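> run fold Hsp20/alpha crystallin family protein
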Amino acid sequence: MSKSSEDFQLERWEEWMKEWLLDPSISILDESEFHMDLYDTTESLIVEVDTELFLPEEMILKREENELTIELNGKDEERMRKRKIKFPFSLLERPITFKFLHHSIEISIPKKTSPCTTPAVMRVQGQCQEDRYK
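> ok
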């Protein structure tokens, strides 16, 4: 990828972030499904999912062309909580990783593409640990 296309992508990302932050439907989804924050680091874009108010037992990440779907099934909940994020770039050649932290899930999307990718659908079960929430 040339330097000029990287700069162009950064400009598109900054504009997209501004639009995302100003979108009034985001606060509705933060309340009805789960709260998310986006962070921009040197190497990656981070989606942080707040799990302080419920205990997730299952997580499903689905990656399509430019859309990431996050589904969470909470302990003692009958419904799956779901959020979708449309990015201004393709996710197909970006190895998405995640880690469970205290009261959150951190999903990392590298800024640079890579031939080594992760599966289009990742499903993790049994992540609920009540003692980590005390």
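The first strand starts at residue 36 and ends at 40.
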